[in-house]
Amino acid sequence: MLYFDVNATAPPLPEVESVYAEANRSHWHNPSSPYSRGARVHILIDTLRQEIGHLIGCSPELIVFNSGATEGNNAVLAETARKFPNQRIVVSAIEHPCVIEPAKRYFPERHQVAKVDSSGRLDLNHLEAELSKGGVCLVSVMAANNETGVIQPWKEALDICRKYKVLFHCDAAQHLGKKPANGLGDCDFVTGCGHKFGAPKGSGFIKIPESFEDFKGTHGGGQENGHRSGTEDYPSLAAMVAALKFREHSMDAVNAAWAVNKSVFEKSLLDKIPDAVIIGQNTNRLANTSCILMPGFPGARWVARLDKHGVSLSTGSACASGKTGASHVLTAMGIEAEDARRSIRISACWDATPEDWSALTKTLFKAYDELINEKPASPGVEVIQI
């Protein structure tokens, strides 16, 4: 089986399985307990907090551990709405649903959308125009898009927010483990998700600003320095930090290999199917991810056919792939809804070999030939994310 859907979730990183197992065996105690073993776990969690703070570049006291990006993004928007009940927020048009939906819920009639260009990159001029109107308390821009792989100008967006004294939130779920974490700590809010880079599901963190000392992602027993109630899962958090450190250490070599293999793949694809169009081809993208407009067939049909041949991929965001309708990311880029419904996302694992990419290429061509022979290609284009 070839797995090319790592942007949905990454396979468990073998190098951290022993970390999880040892922590689960030796440090399973409740960190809030009054006895020494519980206190020891509490100290270990604070050590992890220091390591995350060091990796992203912020004070460890600003790190709040949680279950992942969905919880984190919801908490950021809920707490911002509580603190600024009469101000607006601006979110980019290509944010993950776990940002867009809580924006609608907590800021009804008070949220604006920042446009992106045809390559899927945030329009900084439009963002600044929105902020110049005043009354904005928060801007939310992801670091890298989960569907297209297009890297967003989040640092430039942060600078604009600083100019207008507006808080900045960056969903770094797709960035962490693929691009350097250092510098993210400059953002007011950062959300991270362990299972996106090989840690257990249910592990994540938020970086909060000093001005949110009363931040409460969940209410209850007051864990995480009062910021997020609920018993911490030390083994999962230990595995998350170990996974992120491992990804940081091997990042340069992995990105170089991804870039070469993806380039060969995309060239082969265009040679075989010249009507295909690579989204963001000349834009800075995650090295493991492509988005390609293919002539022909609905995305679900591609997924089913490739799955039959042993290749796992999806039609876009795994969190929304079960829903009908076109990708909001692709339509925000100006792609017609009919064409956007044909999307397929393919994203490579860190250990994908040239042979894996070659097998993907051959299988994709085989599926294409089969589909063409079954039914003539309809007019228009189709999106495949690779």
Automatic annotation (TrEMBL):
Belongs to the class-V pyridoxal-phosphate-dependent aminotransferase family. NifS/IscS subfamily. It comes from Rubellicoccus peritrichatus. Gene3D superfamilies: 1.10.260.50, Aspartate Aminotransferase, domain 1 (3.90.1150.10), Type I PLP-dependent aspartate aminotransferase-like (Major domain) (3.40.640.10). Keywords: Iron, Iron-sulfur, Metal-binding, Pyridoxal phosphate, Transferase. It catalyses: (sulfur carrier)-H + L-cysteine = (sulfur carrier)-SH + L-alanine. InterPro entries: Aminotrans_V_dom (IPR000192), Cysteine_dSase (IPR016454), PyrdxlP-dep_Trfase (IPR015424), PyrdxlP-dep_Trfase_major (IPR015421), PyrdxlP-dep_Trfase_small (IPR015422). PANTHER family: CYSTEINE DESULFURASE, CYSTEINE DESULFURYLASE FAMILY MEMBER. Its cofactor is pyridoxal 5'-phosphate. Residues 3-357 form the Aminotransferase class V domain. GO terms for molecular function: cysteine desulfurase activity; iron-sulfur cluster binding; metal ion binding. This is Cysteine desulfurase family protein.
